[in-house]
Design a protein that fits this description.
alpha+beta; 6-stranded mixed sheet; 45 strands; cell membrane; Ig-like_fold; transmembrane helix; TSP1_rpt_sf
Length: about 700
């Protein structure tokens, strides 16, 4: 390489050699440009001839050949001739400006950092190194850093120590160049700590407030990280019963004078007894006095008195032991936390209630499927059988699967005349007999044949997810002090939830919290439902019922028998009207949802209304006919209905529409089914307007041309 304007020397040695000449770019170099010398090799004793030439920058710049400037040397001796390999001569340089400078970034902790660098153009190509805060960064010392990938700097998992100023350093034999400095900030988003315990009621007597708090310190936000979202303080109302001090009852009558010349009497602190942190009675509950005025002579105890007093003492000890045992048991229960037991083993806290099942004599798909397949939504029937329609029927089936071709194999099935189920198609297939369009929560079908249809899913991997809708209802039981919380986990479809609403309405249940969605994986792990944070000074729950567990099979096949459980609570006083607690629903090692209950017992907090009976959304008939007339007519560019399907985002299995009498009518029926909830005619108008603009651009403009009008 020629650096700046300094010539380079090419040197050639040969032995034994009589003459050596250089040849550059195919031409011999003049002899007077050669400098030669001879010397003896001390090891072999042979003469070595060495020839040197200079190559200048001007020579290289003036050469305009198909390849780089090159030279080789040829040596002669009595043995013959020999050629050396070619030496290429190039002018070295390094541009000043980088083709791409690294850019500063803000990255969350454990996120990936990628700093791009494209060095300046140069000959030879520049080598790249990275500096952090002016110190060299090496991937050999830190496995978390990679500097070998196309000059880029990659940090696989960002750490707080990775924050700093990074510079890309490019160098070759000519010079070194520095890029602009990129500042990297590794930030930490804040996380909430655990809630503190509820504070004592703010008043000792009457209605007050309880509080609990949490802090954004788990972890605390750093380097501009986001502060925690949500409330740092929660409040609930509480009722503190006013203290009642104990009062002595009247003294009992004196006992008979004993052999010890004493008589006794008693009184108890129960008129009234102390309650709610009230004071005990002051004074003694037992009085003893001499009953003979000091004239009594004591005699020895007889064996009957000894036995009597021994029996009384043993009885008192037994009662005390029993009281201590009960107290310790209650204390252990209050501190024990959550007891996990299978829901089928519960006798006191679990209550079952029935739903209407499939009619007798009719085969249910849920009962006929193999274990590996599950029903993803309701069975839907249209008829009567043998009905012959001019156009396919658009049917929508709600489903509860998180749709993923990698995790689910979803099929459409139809019930046969002998009450068996036959597979019609996989939802990913294309068919001319029926059409299937899968959305996230619904499957839209175009069907020619009446019958009973259902969607069936076969999980391919453990990552297959079924959506569950969880809700909690509450009602006062026959005993005015008992309150029942009922938790339902059903398939996330309107039909399944409506069955729950109907059953709860019939028994006076009130929805206490908005239903939430739980993602349940097909990994054979069970479901746990637990109740937490019950105000123990106001409410109690039966032992061993604070957590109930359902097997994986019960939940995965819940379309056959919906998953539900109940928690029976008892208030200590009928004056208690406020209830606050948490219901945790979680899959073991999986997703969890919290239902927060704040309710006033005896009041209707929420109502649930049914959405059945609403009229179906339809495109006005006159507009539908006009659209079909326009797009079913052939033109020079083929069938316009294909463009209509494209603009309405119906782009798969178009061969199904080609065999229809009116492809546009079937496309519009499918569009209506997808937009039942929104009834959004504006989006249809926008699509037609866009098609109109395309036609205006593509059609020739002349006075005789008719303008296509797609507005409505």
């Amino acid at each position: 390489y020629i650096i700046k304007n300094n010539p380079i020397k090419l040197r050639c040695r040969a032995t034994p050699a009589l003459q050596i000449f250089f040849k550059c770019n195919g031409e011999w170099v003049h002899q007077n440009q050669h400098t030669s010398q001879e010397y003896m090799d001390q090891n072999t004793g042979l003469k070595i001839r060495e020839v040197t030439i200079n190559v200048t920058r001007q020579q290289v710049e003036d050469f305009h050949g198909p390849e780089d400037y090159w030279c080789l040397c040829v040596a002669w001796s009595h043995l013959g001739t020999s050629k050396s390999r070619k030496a290429t001569v190039r002018i070295a340089y390094l541009r000043k400006n980088f083709e791409q400078d690294p850019q500063g970034k803000e990255v969350p902790i454990k996120g990936m950092i990628v700093l791009h660098c494209r060095p300046p153009e140069g000959v030879p190509m520049a080598e790249v190194e990275w500096l952090k805060n002016e110190e060299l960064v090496g991937s050999f010392e830190d496995d978390n850093i990679d500097t070998r990938a196309d000059h880029n700097l990659i940090i696989n998992e960002a750490r707080l120590s990775d924050s700093g100023n990074y510079t890309c350093l490019a160098s070759n034999v000519v010079a070194k160049r520095r890029s602009a400095t990129a500042t990297v900030v590794v930030f930490v988003n804040g996380g909430w700590s655990l809630w503190t315990e509820w504070s004592p009621c703010s008043v000792n007597c009457g209605r007050g407030v309880q509080k609990r708090s949490r802090t954004c310190t788990n972890p605390a936000p750093l380097n501009g990280g986001a502060f925690c979202e949500g409330m740092s303080v929660q409040k609930i109302t509480c009722s503190a019963l006013c203290p009642v001090d104990g009062v002595w009852e009247e003294w009992s009558e004196w006992t008979m004078c004993s052999a010890q010349c004493e008589r006794q009497r008693w009184r108890e602190c129960n008129s009234p007894p102390p309650r709610h942190r009230g004071k005990m009675c002051e004074g003694e509950g037992q009085s003893t006095e001499n009953c003979t005025g000091g004239l009594c002579t004591q005699s020895e105890y007889n064996s009957t008195d000894v036995a009597l007093y021994s029996g009384l003492a043993a009885g008192v000890i037994a009662v005390v032991v029993l009281i201590v045992a009960i107290t310790l048991y209650r204390k252990s229960q209050s501190e024990y936390g959550v007891d996990v037991i299978d829901s089928s083993a519960l006798a006191g806290g679990f209550q079952s209630f029935n739903f209407k099942t499939t009619r007798q004599g009719k085969s249910s798909l849920a009962q006929s499927e193999e274990r590996c397949e599950i029903l993803l939504g309701p069975e839907i029937t249209y008829g009567p059988p043998g009905l012959n329609l001019s156009y396919p029927v658009a049917m929508t089936i709600a489903h509860c699967a998180e749709v993923s071709a990698e995790n689910w194999n979803i099929k459409l099935k139809r019930q046969t005349k002998d009450n068996k189920w036959e597979e019609i198609m996989s939802v990913d297939d294309e068919s001319t007999s029926c059409y299937c369009l899968m959305d996230s929560h619904s499957c839209h079908l175009l069907l020619d044949q009446p019958g009973c249809y259902a969607l069936v899913g076969e999980p391919i991997t453990d990552a297959a997810i079924k959506r569950l809708r969880i809700a909690v209802f509450g009602s006062v039981e026959a005993s005015s002090i008992d309150y029942s919380l009922r938790v339902h986990c059903v398939d996330d479809t309107p039909h399944a939830f409506q069955r729950v609403v109907t059953a709860e309405t019939s028994r006076g249940g009130q929805l206490l919290e908005e239903p939430k969605m739980l993602f349940f994986k097909g990994n054979c792990l069970s479901l746990q439902v637990s109740i937490q944070d019950i105000p123990q000074f106001l409410w109690s729950i039966k032992p061993f019922t604070t957590c109930q567990e359902f097997s994986f099979t019960q939940v995965w096949y819940s379309n056959q028998e919906p998953v539900h459980c109940a928690f029976s609570l008892q208030r200590h006083s009928t004056s208690t009207t406020q209830l606050s607690c948490k219901i945790s629903v979680r899959q073991v090692k999986g997703h969890e949802q919290i239902l927060q209950v704040y309710t006033t017992v005896g009041e209707a907090d929420c109502t649930v209304t049914s959405q059945t009976g609403a009229k179906a959304f339809k495109i006005p008939l006159s507009i539908r006919q006009r659209i079909c007339t326009t797009f079913d007519t052939a033109n020079t560019k083929g069938k316009d209905w294909q463009l209509l399907a494209q603009k309405l985002h119906i782009q798969r299995n178009l061969s199904y529409f080609t065999k229809q009498k009116s492809p546009s009518a079937v496309i519009l029926s499918l569009w209506e089914a997808r937009h039942q909830d929104s009834g959004d005619l504006d989006s249809l108008a926008s699509a037609l307007e866009e098609i109109g603009k395309i036609h205006c651009k593509s059609l020739p403009q002349s006075p005789d041309d008719k303008e296509t009008d797609f507005t409505f």
